[in-house]
Amino acid sequence: MKHEVRIISFVLHTLKHECGKCLFLVYLSKLMKMSECADWVGPLEGIWNDTTCPNIGGSSFSTVKLCQDACEATPDCSAINYNDGIVYCVLRNCGMPVPPTSGTLTGWNGYKRVCGGEYNSSYGNISHPLNGGDYSNNENCIWIIRTSDPIKITFISFDTEGNRDFLVVRDELYNLGVYTGSSVPTPIHTTTNVTYLHFTSDFSIVGTGFELYWEPAESTPAITSTPTPGLTQGPT
């Protein structure tokens, strides 16, 4: 199933493929509508001609590699995985007309993983949305943090539509908190080495989202269910 997207603006970069063919890589500045590649992958974005390269979005693509394989299996399409964690599905047929170097396009198909990801580090941070501004309506984002030991999560900022948009934090044993509103949550101590963060938004009002960081927990205090104003939190 293909999803139409409207590209507000783009800049073209031509790269050289290892087999000698050209890669027409389009950098997107904004997508109005998009399909996601999976629930459990990191940030992805891409662009391809809708008559040549397929839309490889859909929940069946559970890893970045599956997305790459689906792209590579299509003639004249190639997947590029950069160190920044972004995967591009691009046209590599030099015989086709070169797209313009800049402008506005409509009716192309693409995918962009706008939120969520998987981390394997004892230290890190999550900022949603990544590039500032407000998060989008109807989001469903999952982050997974895998570490060697329990961690402490500290929030820097938090702003969501109260009682409509929620961030759920849990580990493998407990639901550690359900957060909504504009009050900055108190630090969270996990009890296991795997932590899940699940953010959802509805169709109406949005906010600026949240920013947090994690680090190894020096100790794991007892979990309490004392609520913070504007939030609900505690084990369930």
Query: How many domains, in number, for the residues?
Result: 2
Helix content: under 10%
Summarize model confidence as the mean pLDDT. 62
The number of helical segments is: 1
Tell me the series of helices and strands, N- to C-terminal: EEEHEEEEEEEEEEEEEE
- Classified in CATH, the superfamily of the largest domain is Spermadhesin, CUB domain
Protein name: CUB domain-containing protein
InterPro entries: CUB_dom (IPR000859), Sperma_CUB_dom_sf (IPR035914)
Keywords: Disulfide bond, Repeat
What would you say about this model in short?
This protein has one helix and 17 strands. It is mainly β and 236 residues long.
Could you describe the 3D structure shown?
The chain has 236 residues and is mainly β. It has 2 domains: 4-113, no CATH class; 117-233, Sandwich (Jelly Rolls). Helix content is 4%, strand content 41%. The chain has 1 helix and 17 strands. The chain has one helix at 64-72, and strands spanning 4-16, 22-28, 44-45, 77-81, 87-91, 102-109, 112-113, 117-119, 124-128, 140-146, 151-159, 166-171, 175-179, 188-189, 194-200, 209-216, 232-233. A 6-stranded mixed sheet has the order 8-10-15-12-13-17, with no helix packed on it. It has a 4-stranded antiparallel sheet with strand order 9-16-11-14, with no helix packed on it. It has a 3-stranded antiparallel sheet with strand order 2-1-6, with no helix packed on it. A hairpin with a 5-residue loop joins strand 4 and strand 5. The longest helix has 9 residues, at 64-72. It starts with a strand and ends with a strand. 32% of the residues are buried. Residues 1-64, 81-114 and 222-236 have low confidence and may be disordered. This is CUB domain-containing protein. Residues 115-217 form the CUB domain.
